[in-house]
Amino acid sequence: MSAFASKGFNANRYLNLRPTYNSKLLSWLNTYHAGSKVRAADIACGPGTFTTDLAREFDSVIGVDISPSMIASAQESAKARGITNLEYKVGTGESLPIETNSVDLLTVMEGVHWFKFDTFLDEALRVLKPGGTIALVGYKYPEIEGDKTH
């Protein structure tokens, strides 16, 4: 279990320090995902950083995270921003608290390395509607340019 799931983890601090996603990513996903935009799911959603972006594009969005403190932070953030088409649930990538065949787009933003991948993939395919889209996204490792002698 990750440190993110511990009771003492400060999810609000994490929310304020975590990088955000480039708007081009959501634009690209909108272009790639050819299906309906009724429901999206963001797995390992943390404090809802990308989940709230999805809420601008989909009728409803569910965020799932193993950490109750992350879910609480995500709920507080959405409420403060007046976003009402979001639902958050505590759960794991291997046992998604989502109905079968109910999701058009399923995203995992920099969290898939925490999962038992084969079990997660079975769950993702279970909750996706036929023809749905799975997007597994990770940060690009930085390239440092400049003086390499130090």
The end-to-end span amounts to 37 Å
Structural class: alpha/beta
Global morphology: globular
Largest sheet: number of strands, sense, barrel closure: 5 strands, parallel
Keywords:
150 residues, five-stranded parallel beta sheet, alpha/beta, 5 helices, single chain, disordered C terminus, 22% strand
Account of the protein in words:
- With 150 residues, the chain is of the alpha/beta class.
- It has 5 helices and 5 strands.
- A 5-stranded parallel beta sheet has the order 3-2-1-4-5.
- The chain is globular and about 35 Å long.
Question: Secondary structure elements and their pairing?
Answer:
Blueprint: H1 11-17, H2 23-32, E1 39-43, H3 51-55, E2 60-65, H4 68-80, E3 86-90, E4 103-109, H5 117-127, E5 128-137
Parallel strand pairs: 1-2, 1-4, 2-3, 4-5
Task: Describe this structure in a few short sentences.
The protein has 150 residues and is an alpha/beta fold.
